[in-house]
C-alpha cells in the first residue's frame, strides 16, 4: 500500500481571538465562528480536497490525503477560509508522510512540525489610530470600518462585524444556554452582580492521546469520546443551573476544554453536576482510562473586564493542574478559585506568595483544592448556617489568618470558648480543633478564610 500524507490545521490563540471584544454578543459571535470553521467548514474542505477526515474538535482538524499536494492544498485553503470568515483569525498547519501502520510516529512528527509553524508566527500588534481613521470601539485592536448600530455613533472593525453577524447562531445544543449581556447574569446572582467564570480543561491530553490513541482508528474514536464527554458534562452542569431558574452562558465547549459564565452562587451546583456526568463517560468503550481535569474559577463583579476574567482563570487553572496529593497515584480533579473585590489585580498567585513571604507564616488558603474538597466548602458553610452560627462570629476568622500562626491559633481558641455549645461544635466540625492544618509537602494551610469568602454565595 502506498504511503499517504497527514495534514493538521490548528487555530491560533483561540482565546485571544474570542475574548478580545468586551461585549457578550461579540464574544459569543467569535466563539461560534471558531466552532463553525472547525466542525463544519473545514470538514467540507477536507472532502473537497479529496481527503478523509480523521478528527475535528477543539480548533484542530486532522485529515489524511493520497498525495502531498492535496494535503498542502488543504492547508492553504484552511488558512484562506479563516481569513475570509473572520478577517483576523489565523491557523498553523503541517504536513507529514504517513507510512502504512505507523500512525504514532507520523502523528508525533506532525505535531512537532505544527509547533514549529506556530512559534514562527509574529504576534498580532495594536494597529493604532490617526486623524484619518478610528480604532474599533469593541475590541480596540483594529481599524474601525462599520457602524455597530445605525442609530449610535459607534464604529467597529471587520472582525467584530463578522462576530456580530454570527452571535445569534452556534451549535443547536448550545442555544438554550444563551444570555444577552453579562449584566443579565450578574443581576440573577446572590449577592447581586457577582458572576463566576469557569474554565475547565483536561490534564495532559497530548500525552493521554499518544498513550492510548496508538492507531488512526483509536485516535479518531478517542478524539470523539473526549469531545462528547466535555460537551455532555457542560450540558449537565448548565441544565442544573437552568433548573434553578438562573441564566448561564457557554462561551466555549469542545475538544478538551470549556468556558462557562453563570451567577456566582451557582458555581458549586454547576461543578457538582459536571463531575457526576463526566464520571459516567467511557473512553474507547472502557479500554482507556478517564483523563483527569482541572478548573480555574474567578468570581467577580459582572462589569469586571471579560479579558481579565479569562486571564486570571487561566492562571488559576495552571495552579489547579499542579495539585499533588501524597499517596495518590492519579491526580484527582482539582479546582483553584479566587473571589475578587478590587477593580483590578495583577496576579492572584503572586499576591498569595507575597503574603506568605511578608508574614513568614503559613498560607491563608488551602487552594488549590481537589474537586471533592472544594465541594465540601459549600457543605461546611451550610452546616454553619443550619446550626445558626452568627455570621459576625464567622467573619472574625478572616483577620485571624493574616496574623502569625501562634497568635491566630490563640485567637481561634478564644473564639471557640465564647461560642454556644452547638455553634462551637459546628466550627470544630468545619474548621477543626486548630485553625491551621498540614498541607502538601509540609506546608501549613487553612480553609477558614475561604469559608468566610464564600459565605454570602451559599443561600
Could you characterize the architecture of this molecule?
With 459 residues, this protein is of the alpha+beta class. Helix content is 47%, strand content 16%. It is built from 17 helices and 14 strands. It has helices at 14-18, 24-48, 68-86, 103-119, 158-166, 182-187, 205-212, 216-243, 267-280, 306-321, 348-359, 371-386, 391-395, 397-400, 405-418, 421-430, 448-454, and strands at residues 4-11, 52-57, 60-65, 91-98, 146-147, 155-156, 194-202, 249-254, 257-263, 293-301, 334-339, 369-370, 437-438, 444-445. Strands 8-9-7-10-11-12 form a six-stranded mixed beta sheet. The chain has a four-stranded antiparallel beta sheet with strand order 2-3-1-4, with helices on both faces. Helix 10 (306-321) links the parallel strand 10 (293-301) and strand 11. Helix 2 crosses helix 5 (158-166) and helix 12 (371-386) packs across helix 17. It is globular, with a radius of gyration of 25 Å. 43% of the residues are buried.
Amino acid at each position: 500500500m502506498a504511503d499517504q500524507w497527514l495534514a493538521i490545521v490548528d487555530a491560533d490563540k483561540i482565546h485571544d481571538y474570542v475574548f478580545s471584544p468586551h461585549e457578550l454578543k461579540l464574544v459569543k459571535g467569535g466563539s461560534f465562528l471558531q466552532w463553525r470553521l472547525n466542525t463544519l467548514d473545514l470538514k467540507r474542505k477536507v472532502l473537497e480536497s479529496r481527503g478523509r477526515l480523521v478528527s475535528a474538535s477543539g480548533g484542530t482538524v486532522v485529515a489524511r490525503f493520497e498525495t502531498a499536494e492535496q494535503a498542502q492544498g488543504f492547508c492553504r485553503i484552511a488558512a484562506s477560509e479563516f481569513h475570509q470568515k473572520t478577517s483576523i483569525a489565523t491557523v498553523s498547519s503541517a504536513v507529514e508522510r504517513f507510512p502504512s501502520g505507523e500512525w504514532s510516529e507520523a502523528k508525533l512528527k506532525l505535531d512537532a512540525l505544527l509547533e514549529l509553524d506556530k512559534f514562527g508566527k509574529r504576534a498580532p500588534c495594536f494597529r493604532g489610530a490617526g486623524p484619518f481613521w478610528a480604532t474599533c470601539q469593541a475590541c480596540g485592536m483594529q481599524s474601525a470600518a462599520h457602524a455597530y448600530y445605525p442609530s449610535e455613533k459607534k464604529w467597529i472593525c471587520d472582525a467584530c462585524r463578522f462576530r456580530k453577524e454570527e452571535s445569534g447562531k452556534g451549535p443547536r445544543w448550545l442555544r438554550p444556554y444563551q444570555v444577552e449581556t453579562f449584566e443579565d447574569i450578574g443581576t440573577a446572582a446572590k449577592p447581586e452582580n457577582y458572576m463566576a467564570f469557569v474554565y475547565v480543561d483536561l490534564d495532559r491530553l497530548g500525552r493521554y492521546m499518544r498513550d492510548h490513541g496508538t492507531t488512526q482508528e483509536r485516535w479518531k474514536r478517542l478524539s470523539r469520546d473526549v469531545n462528547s464527554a466535555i460537551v455532555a458534562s457542560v450540558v449537565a452542569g448548565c441544565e442544573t443551573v437552568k433548573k434553578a431558574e438562573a441564566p448561564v452562558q457557554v462561551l466555549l465547549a469542545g475538544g478538551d476544554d470549556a468556558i462557562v459564565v453563570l451567577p456566582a452562587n451557582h458555581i458549586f451546583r454547576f461543578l457538582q453536576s459536571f463531575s457526576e456526568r463526566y464520571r459516567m463517560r467511557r473512553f474507547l468503550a472502557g479500554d482507556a482510562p478517564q483523563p483527569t481535569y482541572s478548573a480555574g474559577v474567578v468570581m467577580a463583579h459582572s462589569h469586571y473586564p471579560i479579558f481579565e476574567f479569562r486571564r486570571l482563570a487561566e492562571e488559576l487553572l495552571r495552579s489547579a493542574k499542579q495539585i499533588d496529593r501524597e499517596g495518590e497515584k492519579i491526580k484527582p480533579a482539582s479546582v483553584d478559585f479566587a473571589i475578587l473585590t478590587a477593580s483590578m489585580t495583577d496576579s492572584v498567585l503572586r499576591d498569595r506568595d507575597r503574603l506568605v513571604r511578608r508574614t513568614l507564616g503559613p498560607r491563608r488558603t488551602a487552594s488549590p483544592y481537589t474537586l471533592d474538597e472544594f465541594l465540601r466548602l459549600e457543605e461546611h458553610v451550610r452546616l454553619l448556617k443550619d446550626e445558626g452560627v452568627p455570621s459576625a462570629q464567622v467573619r472574625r476568622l478572616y483577620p485571624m489568618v493574616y496574623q502569625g500562626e501562634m497568635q491566630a491559633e490563640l485567637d481561634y481558641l478564644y473564639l471557640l470558648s465564647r461560642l454556644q455549645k452547638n455553634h462551637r461544635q459546628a466550627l470544630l466540625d468545619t474548621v477543626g480543633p486548630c485553625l491551621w492544618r498540614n498541607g502538601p509537602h509540609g506546608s501549613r494551610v487553612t480553609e477558614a478564610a475561604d469559608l468566610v469568602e464564600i459565605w454570602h454565595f451559599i443561600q
